[in-house]
Design goal:
Layout: H1 4-32, E1 36-40, E2 43-47, E3 53-54
Length: 65
């Protein structure tokens, strides 16, 4: 069994890595000008590049043939 203080350290490292990854992903979405998608109250929500959170987004993409 792994000592508790070691698991606490591993957990803290994992949490730090996850926070950094989320921050990087949000920065990339903003740079690309596309919304980031996440769940809020069990429903999809979109974080727009301007920082606004909406429940629907308009698509600017045209269907390809």
């Amino acid at each position: 069994m792994v000592p508790r203080n070691k698991t606490d350290k591993i957990g803290a490292m994992a949490e730090k890595a996850m926070k950094e990854a989320v921050k990087k992903a949000l920065e990339r979405h903003q740079k690309l000008g596309v919304p980031a998608v996440f769940m809020k109250d069990g429903k999809l929500a979109y974080l727009l590049p301007n920082g606004k959170v909406v429940s629907k987004v308009k698509s600017n993409r045209k269907a390809s043939k």
